[in-house]
Amino acid sequence: MLALLLLGAALRLLAILTVGAIAQPHGDERYYLGVARTLLEQGVFRGSFRAPGYPAFLALVQAVPPAGLTVVRIAQGAVSLLAVALVFDVVRGRFGVRAGFVSGLLCAINPTLVHYTHFFWSETLVATQLMLVVWCLDRFAGSARSAWLAAAGLALGVTALTREMVLYFAALVAGWIVADRQRPWLWRALHVAVFVLVTGLVVLPWMVRNNSLVGELTLSTGRWLPIAVGNAPARDGTLLGSSSARQLPGRYHRQGDAVAREAFARRVALESIAAQQPWWIVRKIVRNTYLLFSPASQLARYVKKGWLPASLHAHGRLLVVLEGCFYVLSMSLGILGLWLVPGGRTKRIVVALILFHWAVYVLANASHRYRVPLLPLFALYAGPLVCGRWAVERSFRLRLAGALTCLALFALIVIARARGAPEIADALGSNTGLVSRWSWSMSDDRVRAAG
Q1: Counting Cβ atoms within 10 Å, is residue 185 exposed (0-12), middle (13-18) or buried (19+)?
Q2: Beta strands per DSSP E along 234-381
Q3: Is the pLDDT reported for residue 75 higher than 90?
Q4: How far is CA 249 from each of CA 162, 165, 227, 255, 262, rounded to the nearest angstrom?
């Protein structure tokens, strides 16, 4: 573990001081830094659009001298290293030190996880928080001690304060507890109650605060905007083209108070979904799965926009290539590992967590940025796979078929990204009629009305 942490620390510090030496924030970074500055200087959290976890983290780090963006990036590097240690420990306990080292190594040197330590988005913090939830649940699965389940509830509640959607994963954890048939019903019921109670106690104060502010018991009032954006059709009418909702966030924020904005986003989202029936969910599964898992990267965007330090622009292009190759390799190993490596109850909750995120992003908005917290979860079973810790048993052929199917679908996503998604969609439409049968049913007028 020490070797992994030293290697990971060196790579993150090198990235922060070179490629990551970006003085100007971009996109949502401005929001997070602005809210953190208000919280630090005035002691007040601005609005209720997002949960408070990440701005609070930024404010806490900057409250300790010496303040500055580089210090925040170093703190994020330390948070990222905690995820490496958690991955190593979970795998070591189940499959041995060698497998733990390989899984930890995949996280320590992962270019995406390294680069996100110098972006001011919540992905680094959420990735570590999710791994902490898995680590606590793994300890609970091995020991059946209530304290570990309470710790998992605490970790899940804190994670929900950073990314609201994670709160709903509590229902799957409760089902996971109930599914343990080796325990009596009363034991399972009491432990579900403990988990739900601890999670609820963590998030309830913030929900009460929002209720007094906007009259709604909620973690955030920005729930419907990603659904509205994610359900807008492509501008060119193809399956994988660019979204037509670029102006929607601006219109959303001009609607008045938080309640009016949510009502506007809800109306736009539901009208868009209704207009795309009956094939809406099929399109969404294809489109958002592609957007979530395609080998696009935030670093590539920074290189394209010229946001990196000018002296490192050429190095940035090389890093983008390395990042893409590493992503394809590590995801392939992770997919195979999740199918072929036996993992017991811990693997069930890991798979449930991955599928939960995928389902939410299918229904709402999807971006390659949102998969970043899932990368350590895929690494958990890549190490054991590399070390040969997969068993040939009665169901092996079925699991192998599932692994190869998922791997083939991932390969299609990679190929579509490599060749250009709109061009691929157009080719499919002209050659097979597939895209023409799935073409968006909204008229030009309704597209403009939706934003």
Answers
A1: exposed
A2: none
A3: yes
A4: 21, 19, 11, 10, 11
Please state, in angstroms and as integers, the Cα–Cα distance from residue 441 to each residue in 285, 359, 437, 450, following that order.
17, 23, 10, 13
User: CB within 8 A of 89, min separation 6: which ones?
Assistant: 1, 100, 135
Q: For residue 234, what are the β-bridge partners?
A: 243
d(Cα 258, Cα 252) in Å, to the nearest integer? 10
Compute the average pLDDT of residues 93-100: 96
What's the pLDDT band for 420 if we cut at 50, 70, 90? low
Q: 3-class DSSP state for residue 243?
A: strand
Instruction: Tell me how far apart the alpha carbons of residues 54 and 58 are, in angstroms, rounded to a whole number.
Output: 6
What are phi and psi for residue 216, nearest 5 degrees?
A: -145, 130
- Other Cβ atoms closer than 10 A to 244: 21
d(CA 115, CA 11): 9
What ranges do the domains of the chain cover? 2-231+276-419
Residue closest to 61 by CA, chosen among 125, 153, 107, 10: 125
Q: How confident is the model at residue 336 (pLDDT cuts 50, 70, 90)?
A: very high
Contacts of 267 (CB under 8 A, 6+ apart): none
Cβ contact 183:145 at 8 Å: no
| pLDDT for 419 | 78
